[in-house]
Design a protein that fits this description.
Layout lengths: L1 E2 L2 H12 L5 H14 E2 L6 H22 L5
Antiparallel strand pairs: 1-2
Helix pairs in contact: 1-2, 1-3, 2-3
Amino acid sequence: CIPTNIHKTKELLFQYAGPLRNEKGLTKLAQYLNNEATHTSTLTRENIEAANMLTIAKLVTSFALERKESR
């Protein structure tokens, strides 16, 4: 799975999961990330990097939501 808009994904990740974060923003980001993925059968370096970025973004968001003291 790769994000359909990598630049928007980066911006939202910084905005909602950056140093200043809250539960509302993280929840909004999680919903966006879950809806953002698209499947591709073309294995290019760019697609692999984008897929990895989406995976990391989902993990960061998920763990930040679980960790109440970081907000």
